[in-house]
Amino acid sequence: MAISTKPTGAEPPAGGEPYPRPTVSRPAGTKPTAMPAVAEPAPAQDWPAPAQDWPAPAQDRIVLSRVTKTFPNVGTPALDKVDLAIPRGSFFTVIGPSGAGKSTLLRVLAGLAKPDAGEVSIFGEPPAEASRRKHLGWVPQSPALLPWRSVLDNVRLPLQVNRRAPCQPRDPERILALLGLGEALDRLPAQLSGGMRQRVAIARAFAFAPAVLLMDEPFGALDEMTREHVAHLLLELWQAERPTVVFVTHSVSEAVVLSDQVSVMGKGKLSEPVDIALPRPRPEGIEDTEAFHGLQRELRAQLREAFAAPGD
Q1: In 241-270, which positions are buried (b, 16+ CB within 10 angstroms) versus exposed (e)?
Q2: Residue ranges of domains in the chain, CATH in brackets
Q3: Which residues of the chain have pLDDT under 50?
Q4: What is the pLDDT of residue 225?
């Protein structure tokens, strides 16, 4: 990836006794006239509604318990007894060197790879069921847009697939406008810059309001200025929608700017999460503060320890 908008009735009088039922006088011998049905008020159209409020979860965490995943002819497990708990609505980032198991972790969460041992729960559901019910959104390293479809039609695509799955779709045009693409609705992917294409991929993932958003180095191919711009746009959209995000990156500063918690991965193991105790929304200039630099130093120290991880 809703809050009820039904109006509440008047409060009862003091003492807790309900109001008396109103009576209607009519001439003797006449039958009561059926009251016309009163239509329910239309739900409020305030956008966006919190995606994480539906469906009612069995629990409020993504949980991995002793998850292990190995691949043939590879000596070191891609995931080695990983334990992790991610609170609902949080922004959780994994950083680490290439080959440390970050993308494998996302694939296991998405149900695209089955662990050899351990358990995975997406708010009480197995990943395959969460995916079938459209509770998972995916933003890959490459935007993977359909070249013959316009920007708007690419974003609409998830809404046209598996229509029986319950979801609360967002207005694609409003999502694109929030990401600065309101004037590019009819363009084809070939007519967009790299940063614009990646923003379309992000909008596509948000379009069906998933409860969980899995993002695999989505800004890796962008230049530094563009990735900072797109990262801040993502943060604004996430703060409005508040899905649970699991984000993979190589950038320490990007992890600190975006996240509530950051874990370092190396040799298939995850470090204890580092809490990013910075205010939200992030104030302008936060990257220049001593608190920000201190968190960067802590994460870089952990990365140095993890850098012995095997390469891809």
Answers
A1: bbbbbbbbbebbbbbbbbbbbbbbbbbbbb
A2: 59-306 (3.40.50.300)
A3: 1-27, 30-58, 309-312
A4: 85
